Amino acid sequence: MSRRRRNRAMVPGSEHGLGLLKAHVMQNQGYAVNPERPDLVKYEVARTLGVPLQQGYNGHLSSEDAGRVGGPIGGAMVRELVRMAQQQMANQRPPGQ
Predict the structure, then answer these.
(1) What's the CA gap between 61 and 92, in Å, rounded?
(2) Which residues are within 8 A (CB) of 35 and not within 5 positions of it... i.e. 6 or more apart?
(3) Which among 1, 31, 66, 76 is least buried, having the fewest CB atoms inside 10 angstroms?
(4) What is the Cα–Cα distance from 70 to 42, expressed in whole angstroms?
(5) pLDDT of 3 above 90
(6) Helices (H), the chain
């Protein structure tokens, strides 16, 4: 019997902010994103990659195909978070350093 896993943000209440980040990042990647439902961008990514992802149960989907969809989304979000952190650290340096 398989259990359905639900991904949750580690910080309670951060889901909205992560959704906004996903929408911003994926729009910059050239995808059409509904700001009200940024989670739906995965279907557009899947379509462009030729992965048969559909709403509902996707038990037929291989791990490789799932990674091909989630990888670009998560990777782009991580790159943007790193860029934001680097910029914040650069702005916090004392003058002359």
Answers:
(1) 45
(2) 20, 23
(3) 1
(4) 7
(5) no
(6) 15-28, 41-49, 63-92
